[in-house]
Amino acid sequence: MNIGQLIKLERQRQNMKQEYLASGICVPSYLSRIENGLVIPSEDIQQHLLKRLNVPLDALNNDGDEAKLSYFKSLFKSVINSRDKQKAKSLYQDVHIYIEEHPFEPNRLTLLVMETRLMLMLPNYANEVLTNVAILEEFKKEMSTDQLFYLSTIQGIISYQNNEFRQASEIFMNIFNLIKSYRMEDWEMAELYYISSLAFLSESRYILAIDYVKSALSYFNQEILIERSIECLVILGIAQKNTGVLKEAIASYEKAREISSKIESSKFKGMIEQNIGACYSLLKESDLALFHFKSSLQANSDPNINVISILSILKEHHKNNDISNALIWLNSGLEILYKLSESNRDFYANHFLVYKTILLNETNSISTFKRVLDYFESKQEFKYCSIYCYVLAKKLAKEKQYKQATIYYEKGFNYHIKQSKVSSWEELS
User: Fold this and answer.
1) For residue range 168-220, what is the model confidence (pLDDT) as tens digits?
2) Contacts for 151-154 with beta carbons within 8 Å, 24 or more apart?
3) What region holds the HTH cro/C1-type domain (predicted)?
4) pLDDT tens for residues 145-167?
């Protein structure tokens, strides 16, 4: 990076306006030309600009510490592979301090990308991440392929975390195009395959999710990164379940369970048992489904996780027309609501409200379902809108309210279209 670019980067990091930095030194338009590399400032102007930025004058003589950068990269690889938040926090602090102490380090962009990626792994850094991304966007033309790789990866993860799954998938696909003629390291590719599989899974693009997570799994197995392998097997199982290969999905989960037991880890037990239960439910093996749902419940202490199993057990009993047990588990669900985080509380309260209306045969079902549909539509959860429209339509038809039933059958189909992300009926085929 040239002197102008380094001045611009440091000014933006300090959230300093061009007008303020230039004041009394040069006109803002001249500073803009310096920052864009159109002119080289005189030594006098350089010194005044550095002084205002509170940067030591000898910073310009910094040739970069390649050994330090290599050390940071080695730790960065370890952190990304292990996803260890404590290591991430420690490395972030070291990188951040180094950047502040060496503002004109020639490898500044690489360090800033690294710092931003580490912040993504830590809580309470959302604003700082967005600030860094905005700065990095200004320097895309100056970036190398590996720097662009990481910036795009960061943007894809942000989109995924914001539930913008289509955008995340597009970003990851663009990354694969970006690096077609560039050799990334195996660990970097494994991480890309892993996070891409999550995005494609959320987008219901299960075949791609399976292909990518298998590539990540191969690397994690080879490097004996056991917890990462277990995570991949769980993702693989979910994608297999959603493509209807239920026996293969169960085999993936059981492999994950086997590995977990070998390392005597209970971290994934609840998640694995829950997903095995979901497979057996689809196979209509209700006793096995209930067994695994309850095993999941016993493996967890977090109410935000347990509520998933409670709802699954409630659904299973209702599906079997076991009303008495369904009511018992409905009450369990209603009782746990106050222990949930705010977003989860609203989400599950609406699910339980549907079952309460059905099980208690409440007379105000249309108004209740309207509230539920409004909630899920506001969250763009069109799958649940479609399902609950069908439930209401079926209930209304049973009560011989055929006109209302027809309205909700049609609404349900329209929500299905939205969920499928198609623009015309031809795309459904």
Assistant:
1) 999 999 999 999 989 899 999 999 999 999 999 998 899 999 999 999 999 99
2) 151/113, 152/178, 153/117, 153/191, 153/192, 153/195, 154/113, 154/116, 154/117, 154/120, 154/129
3) 7-60
4) 999 999 999 999 999 998 888 89
